[in-house]
Amino acid sequence: MSVTPLFEAKAISKRFGDFTANDKVDFAINPGEIHALLGENGAGKSTFVKMVYGVLQPDDGQFYFQGQPVSLSGPQAARAMGIGMVFQHFSQFEALSVAENIQLAMDQNESLEALSRRIESLSQAYGIPIAADKLVADLSVGEQQRVEILRCLLQSPKLLIMDEPTSVLTPQETEQLFTVIRQLADEGCAILFISHKLDEIKALCKQATILRGGKKIDTLDSETHSKHQIAEMMVGTSISAITRKAGAIGTKSLFEAKGLSRPADGPFDITLSDISFSLYEGQILGIAGISGNGQDELMGALTGEWRDPSLIAHLSIGTDDLRTLSPEERRRKGVGFIPEDRNGHAAVPSMRLTENSLMTSHSAPEMTKKGLIADDVLADKTRQIIADYDVRTPEANPLASSLSGGNLQKFVVGREIARAPKVLIVSQPTWGVDIGAAQLIRSALLSLAQQGSAIFMISQDLEEIFAISSHIAVLHDGHLSATYELEEMTPEKVGLLMGGAQGERA
Amino acid sequence: MITLEKRTSVPQWLRYATPLLAIGVTILLGGVIFAVLGYDAPKALSVFFLSPLSRADQIADLFVKACPLIIIGTGLVFCYRANIWNIGAEGQLVLGALGAGWVALSFPDATSYSILILMALAAMAAGALWALIPAFLRVRFSTNEILVSLMLTYVASLLIDWLVRGPWRDPMSFGFPLTPLYADAALIPPMILPVVGRIGQLHWGVPLALLIAVIAGIIMRRTLAGYQVRLFGEAPRAAKFAGFSPSKVTIGVMMVSGALAGLAGAVEVSANIGQLQPNISFGFGFTAIIVAFLARLNPMAVILAGLVVALAELGGDAAQISLGVPKVVTGLFKGLLLFMLLAGETWTNFKISVGRKS
Fold first, then answer.
1. What is the least distance, in Å, from the CA of A397 to any CA of chain B?
2. What are the beta bridge partners of residue A277?
3. Which of A29, A400, A458, B56 is most buried, with most CB under 10 Å away?
């Protein structure tokens, strides 16, 4: 018999109403093991780890810690046992220092000086550079995450859960994080690492447990299985890779933005400074960058939801000045937009698909007849989008909320591409969708570009940026870098720009 | 422990069943209240809810009572659908009555019914402008339209009080706070139906109210204007992305509801009173809030909801006369109904489970 696992879960189930988020999930992790928990969005990863950390209670099943059955009544009980967790979306008090933030989160009382000393010594021991007296507001997202990790380390965890820790990191920061994780594992700490990025899993983890639709599919050796094999297990069907065909990129500029600035609305908004770019026929310009570096602000300025002609030197499609136009007027000029959030921004969950398709076409003359909405035209148009973009719907004209994330995103993307925009401006086109939907959306974007349209694609997914962009630029702290050709870019170069290094002008 | 779980899908029948259930529970609790107060509960309930339906002229009066509620409620539906909370319809009603009254008093010798059209336009303009104040303040300074519209109601009632006691008072009124009577042409005529003739107090304002509710239903469901209002209420960011202006929607729905409240004020005075006096409304502007919610913010259903609430009003009068039940019981019933509606709303959207699963 092998050693008793450090932590074990047997037949854990969790239901939310009619929805089963975890269905009899088994899981075991040994001391010093780096174990990946893999699955698509909605596969039940977050639900599972929240139960391990005591945030949620399982409906069925039993947890074991060092062989003993345990019940984790809350995070405090989990921490007392030696379980720590670094959340994907952590919240810190911006106006407090690093040490003060950590002090607030500690279960025991400890003086600020003593705590600061312990923070400093830990940060040296693990090579995590952080100053205990710095204000959190002055830290980057990556640095804030280090604070979270230090907070967990102070409690000398035996099991550390990390929920998608690399989603806010540059490639270089990711490498540094991996060094820390490996050192922790060498010291005997078990790491449960959640991700959907297969490259990282292969680089870091020895074991991987795959969840799909709330069920455990398999636990396998991640070193002997290929990325493709693992991906197919996550999705449950075979997938074919899409590749960018080198389409011709015209010399005619379709869209011009020059000297676009936008002051921050609130203390946590980003100021956009002097953003300029051009889009050419057939081009896909990928905009890399970590979230919170001005993506939302830039998107709002391009759609026209925010507009102030005095702060934008130039914004045009062809010869048409767009600066004073509303989003719908910009669409009429041939620009399409797909904002990141499909729940309440790009689409309305509580409305039917026909009403959702009307959102971006309501000023088209064929949409109204004698002052009334042309329901038949709208229904035809909606049916066409559903058919062309393989949107799986429970009924002919369902509420948007009854569609899965991937299907709703296919609908939203299809709705815009169906209008055949000359320029498409899109943010996070495949955020939180399954691999199948992501493939379909990316190939739809590629074929739009091949027909001569230009695409401006903001994405935090570097894999996506490199998969379909013809050109790459990086948004950092409200500044947009120069535009580089795909061939002259590497993930390392992009990473440097994402971290704020100044590239030479191309 | 009681826990609420959001329903993933709401069955259609439940949406329609909850207002009916709310009415049923209100009646049931009403019986309990009557019993506690020492009245014969079944008798009190039958006087309250059945006697106003026992004769044709009483049913006609039910429509007359519901008329202002339907007109105001229809306007409020537009506001509430857009998530704009106009609580000041009562004040807008008063301003509408003043606008119409100003026209009527300016032409004391009018003989043509076309003065009614002029009065309606003046009433709608006055109500809309009164509602524009909270709308503008919200758009420009982000003030809370609930507070501003509500406070303006008190300003409006002081304004009418001053006018009928001061500048507009009839010198022949022996000191009573009343304006002169309107000219006959400025009074909404009673409806003379074929065969049966005149029934109860039925007047031409009633079909107008029904027409307004039906047209509003078509606007809400089938036009871009209605779509804009619904989109704005469901998801303001999506409405902005669609290219609609939040300021225009806010001002639009406030002015529409103000105009309709104003029209209701003009109809009420011109059909039932014939002159201005300090009290021209029995809280129609507030009662219409209940009507709008009872109708689940659906303009056509406002007709039915208006009739139900009017029934409670008339029943209250009947119970007061024949049983000596205090008038405040009517208010109690209305409050009870609103509470039950809100509870029903919660129940529609959430599953309620008692106790904790282990």
1. 15
2. A257
3. A458
State the Cα–Cα distance between residues B267 and B2, nearest whole angstrom. Answer: 48
Question: Is B37 an 8 Å CB contact of chain A?
Answer: no
For residue A369, which residues of chain B lie inside 8 Å, CB to CB?
A: none
DSSP H or E stretch at residue A160: strand A159-163
- Look up residue A474 and give its two tokens: 């990086």
Query: Does B349 reside within a domain?
Result: no
The residue written with tokens 């069943």 in the block is B17
Instruction: Say yes or no for a CB contact (<8 Å) between B7 and A17.
Output: yes
Q: Is B15 on the interface with A (CB under 8 A)?
A: no
B101/B269 Cα distance (integer angstroms): 8
Residue B357 scores a pLDDT above 50: no
What pLDDT band is residue A82 in, cutting at 50, 70 and 90? Answer: very high
Q: Give A-chain residues touching B244 at CB under 8 angstroms.
A: 328
- Residue B15 burial by CB count (10 A; 0-12/13-18/19+): exposed, middle or buried? middle
Which residues, including other chains, have CB under 8 Å from residue B108's CB and lie 6 or more apart? B180, B183
Say how far apart CA A197 and CA A462 lie, in whole Å.
Answer: 10
The C-alpha of A322 sits at a distance from chain B's nearest C-alpha, in angstroms, of 13
Dihedral of the CA atoms A191, A196, A197, A199 (nearest 10)?
A: 70
B218 vs A240, B260, B299, CA distance in Å?
49, 16, 9
Q: Does residue B264 form part of some domain?
A: yes
Q: Is A371 on the interface with B (CB under 8 A)?
A: yes
- Which residue range is the domain that position B302 belongs to? 62-311
With CA atoms as reference, the chain A residue closest to B246 would be A305
Secondary structure of residue B255 in the 3-state scheme = helix
Closest chain A C-alpha to B353 CA, distance in angstroms: 10
Q: How far off is chain B from A291, nearest CA to CA, in Å?
A: 19
pLDDT tens digits, B196-229: 888 889 999 999 999 999 999 999 999 999 999 9
Which CATH code, of 3.10.350.10, 3.40.50.1240, 3.40.50.300, 1.10.472.10, is assigned to A7-235?
3.40.50.300
Which of A20, A324, A372 should be substituted to probe chain B, the one whose Cβ sees the most B Cβ atoms within 10 Å? A372
DSSP three-state, residue A502 = coil
Helix, strand, coil tally for chain A in percent (to 5): 35, 25, 40
User: Which of B175 and A268 is assigned the larger pLDDT?
Assistant: B175
Backbone angles phi, psi at B45, to 5 degrees: -65, -40
Fold of A253-498: Rossmann fold (3.40.50)
Total-model pTM: 0.81
Q: Find, in chain B, the residue whose alpha carbon is nearest to that of A399.
A: B9
For residue A458, give the nearest of A480, A491, A434 by alpha carbon.
A480
Contact across the interface for B238 and A359, Cβ inside 8 Å: yes
Domain count, chain B: 1
| ipTM rounded to 2 decimals | 0.85
Mode of pairing for the β-strands spanning A423-427 and A335-338: parallel
C-alpha to C-alpha distance for B34 and B28, rounded to whole angstroms: 10
Nearby residues of B36 by Cβ (< 8 Å), 6 or more positions away: none
> Does this chain's domain A7-235 share its CATH topology with A253-498?
yes
The DSSP code sequence of B164-227 is HHTTT--TTSTT-S-PPPPPGGGSPPBP-BTTTB--TT-BTHHHHHHHHHHHHHHHHHHSHHHH
Collapse the DSSP code of A426 into the 3-class scheme (helix H, G, I; strand E, B; otherwise coil) and give the result. strand
Alpha carbon distances (Å) from A420 to A354, A414, A467: 19, 10, 22
Listed in order, strand segments (DSSP E) in A213-252 are: 215-221
Q: Let me know if A68 is exposed, middle or buried by CB neighbors in 10 A (0-12, 13-18, 19+).
A: exposed
The answer to whether A351 faces chain B, any CB pair under 8 Å, is yes
pLDDT at residue A242, as a whole number: 65
Mark yes or no for CB contact A351/B243 under 8 Å.
no
Asked whether residue B326 is assigned to any structural domain, the reply reads no
Q: What is the CATH number of the domain that holds B199?
A: 1.10.3470
